[in-house]
């Protein structure tokens, strides 16, 4: 079991609520930019489209789709250190996508007094990718046992979010359904 996670593909489901982690399609961005042909002097514009990053989210219950499937990479990097990345199985033309803490995303939550930090999808080839660990159903960034992945509700709404909070809040344990 790499980093405490099951071998192979699995769904991550909150033990108390049944919510399932997922990686949703982020859409496309379209635009145009001015262009100039230096040989002919002709001016114009070039249109483009860009595939946006995948979007981390929750489903109220698993629906049997690939966007809900994850795997843990327990292999070593070229220097012999474990990668410990948590991948969603969906890839696009640019990269594979991993779960990442997003310090720029803060939430006020029902029943949790401390500000919570969000999580997001992150391109696996970028610097600073989080290393994840699982122990007794708690999911945390390797080396930070005190902050765990938590299912909570935004203050003033019933919208469920998965965030990093201190241990001790409700909805912090997860189960894994292997495939």
Brief characterization of the structure:
This protein has 179 residues and is an all-beta fold.
Structural features:
179 residues; mainly beta; Trefoil (Acidic Fibroblast Growth Factor, subunit A); 14 strands
Descriptive account of the structure:
The protein is 0% helix and 55% strand. The chain has strands spanning 10-14, 20-24, 28-36, 43-51, 55-59, 69-73, 85-91, 96-109, 112-123, 132-135, 138-141, 147-153, 160-166, 174-178. The protein contains no helices and 14 strands. It has 179 residues and is mostly beta strands. The protein has a single domain (2-25, 49-171), classed as Trefoil (Acidic Fibroblast Growth Factor, subunit A) (Trefoil).
Task: Report mean pLDDT, rounded to a whole number.
Answer: 93
**What would you report as the Rg, rounded to the nearest angstrom?**
19 Å
Strand content: over 45%
Overall, the morphology is globular
Q: Quickly count the domains.
A: 1
CATH class: Mainly Beta
Weakly predicted, low-confidence segments: none
N-to-C order of helices and strands: EEEEEEEEEEEEEE
The SS-based structural class is mainly beta
Helix coverage percent? under 10%
């Amino acid at each position: 079991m790499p980093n405490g996670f099951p071998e192979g593909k699995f769904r991550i489901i909150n033990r108390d609520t049944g919510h399932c982690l997922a990686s949703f399609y982020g859409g496309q961005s379209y635009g145009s930019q001015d262009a100039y042909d230096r040989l002919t002097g002709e001016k114009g514009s070039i249109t483009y489209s860009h595939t946006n990053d995948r979007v981390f989210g929750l489903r109220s219950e698993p629906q049997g789709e690939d966007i809900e499937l994850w795997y843990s990479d327990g292999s070593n990097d070229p220097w012999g250190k474990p990668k410990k990345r948590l991948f969603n199985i969906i890839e696009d033309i640019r990269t594979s996508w991993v779960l990442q803490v997003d310090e720029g995303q803060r939430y006020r939550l029902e029943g949790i007094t401390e500000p919570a930090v969000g999580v997001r999808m992150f391109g696996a080839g970028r610097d600073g990718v989080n290393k994840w660990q699982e122990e007794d159903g708690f999911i945390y960034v390797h080396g930070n046992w005190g902050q765990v992945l938590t299912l909570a509700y935004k203050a003033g709404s019933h919208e469920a979010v998965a965030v990093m909070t201190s241990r001790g809040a409700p909805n912090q344990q997860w189960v894994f359904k292997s495939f």
